[in-house]
Amino acid sequence: MIKKFLQKVFNKKTKAQIAINKADSSNTSAAKIISASKHNINKNLISQSALKTCDGLQKAGFEAFVVGGAVRDLLLNYKPKDFDIATNATPEEVYKVFRRSRIIGRRFRLVHVLWGNETIEVSTFRGHHDNEGDAAVNDSGRIIRDNIFGSLEEDAVRRDFTANALYYNATTEEVLDFHNGVADLKASLLRMIGDPTTRYQEDPVRMLRAVRLSAKLGLKIEKNTQAPIQKLADLLQDVPPSRLFDEMLKLFLSGHAVESISALRAQHLHHGLLPLLDVVLEQPLGEKFVMLALKNTDDRIVAGKSSNPSFLFATLLWHEVLKTWETYKAQGHNLIPALHMAMHEIIDAQAKKLAIHNRFTATMKEIWGMQPRFEQRAGKRPYALLTHPRYRAGYDFLLLRCESGEIDMELGEWWTEFADANTERRTAMLLPDTNPKKRRKRNHKKPATHSEPTTHVKEPS
């Protein structure tokens, strides 16, 4: 008993000493410390999982802060969607603290700490990528690997925008502000930390992020931050398609997709992200269709409803599919085979720019594939379409086509009534079946010849 007690006491002392040593390694003297009475962050908006993660790391003797976009949103009195934690613990040390966690990533090694259905992302304070260690850049200056760890102050320098270089200590309820991010937020300004050209070369996705944050939060991009964007837009061609897709998904599902598209066009960043999206947006019919789809998505998100990325990307690429479909039909291909050829061509072309996940492309193809079937309003075909697992998505897509003027509104109205009608009304609504009847194939097999059954009679013994 005494031995266990002494071990417990000495273990506490060791952890306390670790905490002191770790704290000494991070210089907070350059930060403005904003107290709870001044920043007025509502702690009820902070995820309990994020608070437990910070608490667990601090009890283990490490520093831990809620960081980045979550702090920015809290200061603006928004409820953050995601919570990231920054710490001076290495990924291996974080992994040891939390039983349900996993180390992920090559480019940036992180730890995902799992709390039920929620995942908290924990990163180690980053040092400058020019320091000696596990880091690399390509010829254009893009950082392709960065696992050099540093102090809290160095980590703040590595953040992209001043509004994202904010650190919230859940224990003291203080915000550490290294780059006047709070002042920029109050001035509704989005400002890059460091030289904007260099920072965009390090990570071209920051250009898209600037557009997304300015649209979402109503921030004006500071003039020096904005100046190099148009000139450096081609750097996005060097970004891995999977990263580009993730960023575009955030942009279109931000609840401010309409503003984001307008901002993309204003910064000349829409070229090449989606094949010929810029051409579609310059055509009255195409622009109306896309903008209607984005507005519907925004309305759903603002209302707290879910939004399916498959539906969104199906709308963004539909006019490319439509144009290619017409080309194949003009070449003599039948209706449905021509549509499938067009779908595959557009998806394959898109994959080179933006790696849309297979689980999304499969649904996109189903939505597109249903569109010719809505034209079939005779016989049993409408009943079969109503039972399709993606019917609702296909029907919503049809209504967008009607509303944009691509097809007659009468078709959408017919399906709206048919779906809600009783059996008698549905029967009356069906159009005459003018399709030629398929001839039944006759069975030309010769009838089997049956021989007389042989009766086996047991002979008397």
Structure description:
50% of the residues lie in helices and 10% in strands. The chain is an alpha+beta fold and 461 residues long. It has 2 domains: 184 residues, Beta Polymerase, domain 2; 178 residues, cca-adding enzyme, domain 2. The strands form 3 sheets. The chain has an 8-stranded mixed beta sheet. A two-stranded antiparallel ribbon has the order 7-8. Strand 4 and strand 5 form a beta hairpin. Helix 16 crosses helix 18 and helix 17 runs antiparallel to helix 18. The longest helix is centred in the first third of the chain and has 24 residues. The radius of gyration is 30 Å and the shape is elongated. The N terminus and C terminus are likely disordered.
* Termini gap: 98 Å
Q: Give the second-level CATH assignment, the architecture of the largest domain.
A: 2-Layer Sandwich
Strand order of the largest sheet: 1-10-9-2-3-6-5-4
Number of domains: 2
Fourth CATH level, the homologous superfamily of the largest domain: Beta Polymerase, domain 2
CATH class of the largest domain: Alpha Beta
Spatial extent as radius of gyration: 30 Å
Q: Describe the sheet with the most strands.
A: 8 strands, mixed
Number of strands: 12
Overall pLDDT: 85
Name the beta content range.
Answer: 5-15%
Q: Strand pairing plus helix content: what structural class?
A: alpha+beta
